[in-house]
Amino acid sequence: MNKCQKIQCSVSSCMFNEFSENLCNLDAIQVSAGANSDSGAPYDETLCASYKPKKNKK
């Protein structure tokens, strides 16, 4: 992977999000489909599996 790539993200509840810059702090993310999903709809098939809520930040 090219080190110049950036992951843009606007999910402010994620602990890896730099909301002021609309960026993810991770070098890479895992994208997964939702549980029991084979709908083909983007909102079902492209979930960020690396998401962690800010309240669990340790």
UniProtKB/TrEMBL annotation:
Which parts of the sequence belong to the DUF1540 domain?
A: 7-51
Q: Mind telling me what this protein is named?
A: DUF1540 domain-containing protein
Classification of source organism: Bacteria, Bacillati, Bacillota, Clostridia, Eubacteriales
